[in-house]
């Protein structure tokens, strides 16, 4: 099933990264290639601290880097069209049209669907060498494109993951989310979010890989973004791995086709 869930250390930089040293933490670099400001949200699993305090503002063209220890797991996403009061205000002190996390700049909970996710588990796996597992998930819907590129090809399945396509432009009418009635599409809901039925949510009698199969909606997502999760049991073509500690990761919001092709 899709991966889910980095001890903090926030650095803002225009540079990318060097390959990690033996025993060093993993560096995540977030780059905003959207023509507008986004507010990345971060959420950590396994009791780790929140990277970047859980959320921050990222201007067009800007980058932010974080260091995470072995064993970290968590997720990143982009919030869009946000308005926040001064940072001194107590949360909730604002709101975002997509990816909102309870009106707070610094997220302590996940983003409200529909939202595209970049998910990591560092140093996971059972038998054999430890691996980093990562994916881009559209299981909770789509708001903007996300790409993950490892800094080194550390393993047979250590490669680009993500969604370059603009799914908002292709979104079926029944899945569209607009900022206001009749307005432009700002996100595309998952069928589970839109309809809530077990066959779309992989629950109840449909709660296993054998019974929860692709639907016409998840197939639309998969056709547009073949290197991203389209539904909960879309593991075979959507989970990627690198040798643990051998790569850092660049997460790009609004990636271009060239970003997907440029594997370091």
Automatic annotation (TrEMBL):
Superkingdom to which the source organism belongs: Eukaryota
UniProt KW keywords: Signal
Signal keyword on record: yes
PROSITE patterns cross-referenced by the UniProt entry: THAUMATIN_2
Signal peptide (from-to): 1-23
UniProt feature coiled coil, ranges: none
InterPro entries in the cross-refs: Thaumatin
A family per Pfam: Thaumatin
Listed name of the protein: Pathogenesis-related protein 5
Organism annotation: Zingiber officinale
Lineage: Eukaryota, Viridiplantae, Streptophyta, Embryophyta, Tracheophyta
């Amino acid at each position: 099933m899709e991966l889910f869930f980095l001890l903090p250390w926030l650095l803002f930089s225009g540079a990318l990264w060097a390959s990690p040293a033996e025993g060093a933490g993993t560096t995540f670099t977030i780059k905003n290639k959207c023509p507008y400001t986004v507010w990345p949200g971060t959420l950590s699993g396994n009791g780790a601290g929140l990277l970047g305090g859980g959320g921050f503002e990222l201007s067009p063209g800007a980058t932010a880097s974080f260091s995470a220890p072995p064993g970290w797991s968590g997720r990143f996403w982009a919030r869009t069209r946000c308005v926040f009061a001064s940072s001194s205000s107590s949360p909730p002190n604002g709101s975002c049209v997509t990816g909102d996390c309870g009106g707070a700049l610094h997220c302590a909970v996940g983003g409200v669907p529909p939202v595209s996710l970049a998910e990591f588990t560092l140093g996971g796996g059972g038998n054999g060498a430890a691996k980093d597992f990562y994916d881009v998930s559209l299981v909770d819907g789509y708001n903007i494109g996300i790409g993950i590129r490892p800094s080194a090809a550390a393993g047979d399945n250590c490669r680009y993951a993500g969604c370059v396509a603009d799914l908002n432009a292709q979104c079926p009418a029944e899945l569209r989310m607009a900022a206001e009635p009749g307005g432009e599409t700002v996100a595309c809901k998952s069928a589970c979010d839109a309809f809530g039925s077990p066959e779309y949510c992989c629950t109840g009698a449909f709660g296993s890989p054998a019974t929860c199969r692709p639907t016409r909606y998840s197939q639309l997502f998969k056709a547009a973004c073949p290197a991203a999760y389209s539904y909960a049991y879309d593991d075979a073509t959507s989970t990627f791995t690198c040798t643990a500690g051998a790569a850092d990761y660049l997460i790009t919001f609004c990636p271009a086709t060239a970003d997907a092709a440029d594997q370091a």
